[in-house]
Amino acid sequence: MKKSIVITSALMSCFLLTACGSQSSSSSKQSNSHSSSKAVAKTSTSKKQSVASSSSSATQTQKYTDEEYAMMGFLKQDGQGIDNLLNNSIQNMNWKQSGNTYTIDFGAHTTTMTVNKDSVTVTYDAYDSSLGHMGTQNAHKTYTKEELANQFGTDKAKIDQALGHNNSSSSSSSTQDQSLTQQASSILYYGANKLNNEEFKNCYDFAAKNLKLDIIKTTNGQGITIYKMAPGEVDSYIAYSVDSDGTIHFYKMLPNDSGEIGTASQKDINSFVSSQKATDQVNQLANAAKVYGN
After folding, report:
1. Which of 273, 237, 192, 244 is nearest to 78 (CA)?
2. pTM surpassing 0.85?
3. Model confidence over 28-60: pLDDT tens digits?
4. CA-CA-CA-CA torsion for 176, 276, 271, 247, nearest 10 degrees?
């Protein structure tokens, strides 16, 4: 009888141990399965975030055209800003495109922007300290589209305004001539009345009286565009040029007396014309002016 009880007890102990082990193993498997599910979920979330980030970055760089990126590259290298370009230099901006390459100049040095898949390479004339001005050696800078978009993306509307104002691929020559006659007329008025130069005075008085003004575009030996002005069929003894930053240089060109007589920005010239209530006079002369040369 005792032997039977002992055997029965032993069997019961084995059964309890087996059941406990089975329960522990099942719990462990559930725990491992739960942890594995968390890991998969975490990995999936991480991948989604990474994909979303990449998608956002791609969208950022795809929001702008190659032409806009080219202008951003110029603005980055030039450092003057889009507002300065629109306020002071836009009348003299020459913008051209050939494939993925764009060039810009303001009557003097040319800057080239090459738009690549993810970047823009800008080639320009480096400053030569020994000469005191731009040298003849090219320099290069490369900017990523992402950094350009981050810096100039909010200026998109102004960039489009600049490109639309004077884009050789879309603007007619008559539109460009109109901008030039407007500029020349205001410069002539400023030279005559603000700089009080006798040659500019004589030219302006004759031009305004007869409503005739000829603007002759020429290029000097340094590659700088010179705009000569004459009141109709009369020899020109005055001229001006425009720097890339919008600074305008006034010249007298008499046979025995020539040279620079002053400088001003287009913004200052426009403000002076407005302050003298001479806008209508300048516009009237601009409408009658004619442009010659390339």
Report:
1. 244
2. no
3. 445 454 544 454 445 445 544 544 444 444 444
4. 70
